[in-house]
């Protein structure tokens, strides 16, 4: 909990790369896999958006 109202609230990460997995249940591992898949999809969508923006910029500057 933040001491002052203007301090950002920090979320605890669902998964940390390299974390010890021996104490997690099968269900917890499945939840982490789903969270990581969702994050991968989010990253790929952002990357695709940036690629299309770059392609549009390259096409604009090649017209000269």
What would you say this structure looks like, in words?
The protein has 64 residues and is mostly helical. It has a domain of 42 residues. It contains one helix and no strands. The longest helix is centred in the C-terminal third of the chain and has 37 residues. The mean pLDDT is 85.
Which terms summarize this structure?
64 residues, flat
Principal-axis shape equals flat
Round the Cα radius of gyration to an integer and report it.
20 Å
Low-confidence stretches: none
Averaged pLDDT: 85
Number of strands: 0
H and E order? H
Largest sheet: none
Number of helical segments with 4 or more residues: 1
Structural class label: mainly alpha
Residues in helices, as a percent range: 55-70%
Strand content: under 5%
How far do the termini sit from each other? 56 Å
How would you summarize what this structure contains?
The chain has 64 residues and is mainly α. It contains 1 helix and no strands.
Give the SSE layout.
Elements: H1 26-62
């Amino acid at each position: 909990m933040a001491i002052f109202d203007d301090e950002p609230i920090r979320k605890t990460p669902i998964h940390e790369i390299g974390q010890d997995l021996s104490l997690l249940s099968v269900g917890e591992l499945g939840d982490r896999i789903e969270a990581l898949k969702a994050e991968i999809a989010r990253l790929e969508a952002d990357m695709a958006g940036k690629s299309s923006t770059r392609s549009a910029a390259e096409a604009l500057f090649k017209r000269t």
